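Appendix B, Record 12. Input sequence as logged:
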Amino acid sequence: MATLPVVYTYPLSNYTFVKKEPKLDKDTTLADRLARMKLMYRQEGMRTSVEAILVVQEHNHPHILILQIGNTFFKLPGGRLRPGENEIEGLKRKLTSKLGPTLPALVPDWKIGECVGMWWRPDFENVMYPYCPPHITRPKECKKLFLVHLSEKDYFAVPTNFKLVAVSLFELYDNPQNFGYVLSSIPQLLSRFKFNAVAT
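Logged structural output:
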């Protein structure tokens, strides 16, 4: 039997969460976001975005740290890469922007691990697929999900207009109506890993 790669997880209570200045969204509506995406596509081509899967443990079960905006919108921390930007360095930049404290000494040492999933946006719509449809020759976005290995203790600063919530794998699983298809796919993406809960 093949050995599963091991991911060490630490209790949610190990981590410190504070607030920082709000991070205002560039778009107030989905239509605005898609319109801006269309404009950026004309200027730069296909959008590449990177997002982080941050795993902690709570009640002896893996939980994912997810940004909540308002009451019903959830997303992984991350965002769009700059043209030509390295994926790993770009994800570290986005994580520091979204969750890094203002004091550089307290910024977590982001250990970017495996790319565990890729999603494609065929057109300027709010629909993404875990494959690029064969008739699509010019997809508008490729989104890559990376597993990020957290240290035993870390310090996160969350913008005041966001919440950072820990959501269990069993709550995410098969739950696109609440979390969307990308987030609800995470339990399957992580099923090839063995999670070792470290008690501290």
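Helices lie at 30-44, 87-99, 169-172, 176-184, 186-189.
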